[in-house]
Amino acid sequence: IPQGYRAEMDNPAMLILMPPMLRNRKDVLFGNMPEIYDFHNRIFLHSLESCLGAPERVGFCFLDRRQDFQMYEKYCQNKPRSESLWRQCSESTFFQECQRKLEHKLGLDSYLLKPVQRLTKYQLLLKELLKYSTSCDGVQELQEALVAMLDLLKSVNDSMHQISITGYDGDLSELGKVLMQGSFSVWTGHRKGPTKMKDLARFKPMQRHLFLYEKALVFCKKREEHGDGYDKTSSYSFKHFLKMNAVGITENVKGDHRKFEIWYSGREEVYVVQAQTVDLKMAWLNEIRKILF
């Protein structure tokens, strides 16, 4: 793919076949695929090959290189831009010619999906290895490698949602890392100051998509974009945020084990939040506690 497609975008002989919108946009279409390819080709493959005689060392290979795997997050974040460009140009003669020369049955889009699929395969591979490694050396590292890969998957998933936030006036990356994201029912109230009639009337909860960052809790409204199948995407319109250094929590709310309370600057604003399950509520409370304490 780097040679048969990406390099061909710089080939003067192929320029005539290339649609204008594709010119100088190989970094959008391919993201950081060259970086991923280089990492596997020069480093990770050799690392794995050194385990042929000692498969119990595979876990160590993953742990040793766990920081390098962050490059997949960058690739996945670029994927929506890449797909959008591909949809506009996929019928072009340029791609047909590249595919013909390579004698590929599948189009480029199938190969651009490979890094995303690879990421989910790693944890399956590690699970499979663990199944046959009950009481041998290296089992601890295998277990840790599996946790690291599952964490990476979650982190990629969370950051994929984050790039769909619209209407935030500022730089989201300044809020730190996304730790959790998900949909909740939310009731709001204001304990101090005059209570507005609309707050009293709000017995019906709002549906909000929450993003928990290291420094803030961001409230968004999820919007389904119109489009057919493949083109249909969700976006999250920003509503407001609470700085974590002024947040407090009450872990149990009367009447429903799935509810908890988030209050802000000495209970001036109070949000009753209902998760879909008790387990989900506990997972969020654990993460919030880590930040607060």
Architecture overview:
The model has no long low-confidence stretch (mean pLDDT 89). Strand 3 and strand 4 form a beta hairpin. The N and C termini lie far apart (48 Å). The chain has 293 residues and is an alpha+beta fold. It comes from Burhinus bistriatus. GO terms for molecular function: guanyl-nucleotide exchange factor activity. This is MCF2 protein.
Considering the chains and any ligands shown, give keywords for the structure.
293 residues, alpha+beta, Dbl Homology Domain, Chain A, PH-domain like, 2 domains, 8-stranded mixed β-sheet, 44% helix, DH_dom, guanine-nucleotide releasing factor, DBL_dom_sf, RhoGEF_Guanine_NuclExch_SF
Please outline what is shown here.
This protein is an alpha+beta fold and 293 residues long. The chain has helices spanning 2-6, 26-30, 33-49, 58-64, 71-89, 93-102, 108-112, 114-131, 139-162, 197-200, 278-292; strands at residues 165-166, 178-189, 206-213, 216-224, 234-243, 247-250, 259-264, 269-274.
* CATH fold naming of the largest domain: Dbl Homology Domain, Chain A
How would you characterize the largest beta sheet? 8 strands, mixed
**What fraction of the residues are assigned to beta strands by DSSP?**
15-25%
- Bin the helical content: 40-55%
Strand order of the largest sheet: 1-5-4-3-2-8-7-6
CATH architecture of the largest domain: Up-down Bundle
Order of helices and strands: HHHHHHHHHEEHEEEEEEH
Number of domain units = 2
What structural class results from the helix and strand content?
Answer: alpha+beta
> Which value, in Å, is the CA radius of gyration?
24 Å
Overall 3D form:
flat
The CATH homologous superfamily of the largest domain is called Dbl homology (DH) domain
Distance between the termini: 48 Å
GO molecular function, one term: guanyl-nucleotide exchange factor activity
Protein name: MCF2 protein
Pfam family, one: SOS1_NGEF_PH
InterPro entries: DBL_dom_sf, DH_dom, GDS_CDC24_CS, PH-like_dom_sf, PH_domain, RhoGEF_Guanine_NuclExch_SF, SOS1_NGEF_PH
